[in-house]
Structure formats: structure tokens, C-alpha cells
Automatic annotation (TrEMBL):
This is Cobalt-precorrin-6A reductase. Keywords: Cobalamin biosynthesis, Oxidoreductase. PROSITE patterns: COBK_CBIJ. It comes from Paraburkholderia lacunae. GO terms for molecular function: precorrin-6A reductase activity. Pathway: Cofactor biosynthesis; adenosylcobalamin biosynthesis. InterPro entries: Precorrin-6x_reduct. It holds the Pfam family CbiJ. One of its GO terms (biological process) is cobalamin biosynthetic process.
Amino acid sequence: MMRILLLGGTGDALKIARQLGPDHVYSLAGLGKVPDDLACAVRVGGFGGSAGMARYIEHERIGLVIDATHPYAAQISANAMQASRAARVPCWALRRPGWQPQDGDAWRMVDDWRELSVLLAAFKRPLFTLGREPLAHLDDIPPHQFWTVRCLDPHEGNARARILATRGPFTLEGERALFSAEAFDVVVSKNSGGSATEAKLEVARERGLPVVMLRRPELPAADREFGDVAELLGAWRRISS
């Protein structure tokens, strides 16, 4: 049997992990809750770069690496490709399509935090859905702003920031209630794609709110790339049958 090393970090990765038996390994960075109901082995923590991952692949006799990490985890994806090549095993990647602007959307694209900060100067109550990055900037919040930061990491925030430590999926009804209660005037997001966190964009559209969208990083080309979980699992079943 071809042993799989699944690199996780998204809800889609967990869907794949639930289809894997005890011979396979699901590797997580250790952020958030670690699943305890899987048949496959679960590994938590880093590998020590691409060289460390290559050694792990060889030592554990891995026959296929599946990169199902977050679309913005560019370094991990690069390490996965380099390690698989060094160990001479194939690397498949789940490349979830990004969201596309629709009629009524007012997206403003940025490449980094500096550009984002410049654009946000005109607003008072942003909702950040970038993960933990805004937590490093809580001491730099302009006096005219109050931030709401939604991420996995609990944090006490401060007088001008509220931290919502929560995990999707988020419903349309729940997002409507949150937006109504907090009176956001701009949404800050990564273009993660998928349905789990898309409802915020629909509510922003309904309310006529601008969205500051962080562009996706360029990811290395994998040996095979798949747009959804079903397509990837179908290909794996065909080669393992």
C-alpha cells in the first residue's frame, strides 16, 4: 500500500483525513484543536524545513505527499514540493479556487500589511478575518478605529480591539447578526475560497460594504493539482485499487 503523508491546515484536509486508514499520517502545524476521532495517525508540529520533511518521508516510507494546507501557507507548500522531489515521491496538491467578485462587490486588492494599513485609514470599524496577523498590530491601532479580529487564537485584545476566537463554518444568518450588532464599515479578508467562510462576503455585498482582499501568494506547481476533495480522493482510489 502507498503510504500517504497528508499536510493539513484546512477543513478540506480533515475531509481527506477522515478517508485515511491507520497506515497513513495526517500532519498538522498544531494550531487549533487537534482531531481525536481519526483512524489515521496524527502528527503535530513542524519538520525542520524541506530537508527535515524529506528525511521524514524517507524514514517513514511515505509514497505520496498530499498538500492540503491553507492557500496562504506558501512556505509549507514550497517545503512539501522540495521535500517530495528530494525523496523522489510524488506530491499532489489541493488548490481550492479563490472567490471571484460578483455584481455589487467593492473589493480592494492588496499585497501586504503596509498596503492594507494605508487603505484602512479611511475606516473606523474594520472586521479582520486574516487569522492571527492583526494580533501583532494591536498597539498600532489608530485612535479613530475599533478593530474586531476573528481568528483561532484566544487573546484579551485591548481598549480598541475585540478578539473573536472562533472557527468556521459561519452561517449567513450568523454573519448577518454579527454585522448588525457590530456596525462594521469594512471587511478585511484573505481570498481563501470555499464555502466555510464565504458568508461574510455575501453580507458585505448586502450591506454595500467594501472588502479589502489580500491577494493569494504564488504557490509551487505540484505533480498533480486538484480543485476539490472529491476529485483528489477519486484519483487516489484509482491508483490504490
